[in-house]
Write a structure and sequence with these properties.
single chain, 183 residues, alpha+beta, 6-stranded antiparallel beta sheet, 3 helices, 34% strand
């Protein structure tokens, strides 16, 4: 099935107001960096009026956010992110490079970043995404529990996760259960 990946979270409601709702990208970066780690944002679209919106929920060792910048931007993390970020685009595209490997995130192709690797991406002006942040310690503990042995080296996942691929077909039901469990 070639579904749009974000649809697993279509029924999730956030509060009546956004956690971040501002045209001031400096303010938006300062606030969102507390959740996503330190990063810089560079506008790349001429004449656009940026307006960042972000909704957020923390759920134990992971968090779920919905966010957009309202302008074409480069997102440049200041340090490698230990945690994993799974982006499920609703619309638009983001072209990423992680550890020298290019990938593209779009509605039918989620992407994964982080895990201690350096990454950056460029998002289109209409890019809007659901973003899951997985605590790397929780991922490592789950991996050790599944394999029955201690982690000997960092886990490196493929960046691209097309919805027609077996990996997505295995992950999507679990994410749907997570979405249903949200209060």
């Amino acid at each position: 099935m070639n579904q749009e990946a974000w649809s697993v979270f279509a029924g999730v409601a956030f509060g009546p107001t956004h956690w971040i709702d501002t045209p001031d990208l400096d303010e938006a970066v300062a606030r969102s960096s507390r959740l996503l780690g330190p990063y810089r944002l560079r506008r790349i679209g001429p004449g656009e009026r940026p307006h960042m919106r972000m909704d957020h929920r923390a759920i134990g060792g992971l968090s779920l956010s919905r966010l957009s910048w309202g302008a074409a931007v480069d997102v440049l993390p200041d340090v490698p992110l230990d945690d994993y970020l799974l982006t499920l685009p609703c619309r638009g595209v983001a072209d990423a490079v992680q550890a020298g490997r290019p990938s593209r995130a779009e509605p039918r192709t989620p992407a994964l970043a982080g895990g201690g690797q350096v990454f950056r991406f460029s998002a289109s002006a209409d890019f809007e995404q659901w973003l899951l942040r997985f605590d790397h310690r929780a991922v490592n503990a789950a991996w050790a529990a599944l394999t029955g042995s201690d982690l000997r080296r960092p886990i490196v996942f493929d960046e691209s996760l097309p919805t027609v691929a077996a990996a997505w077909q295995s992950l999507a039901p679990t994410l749907a259960l997570l979405a249903q469990a949200l209060p």
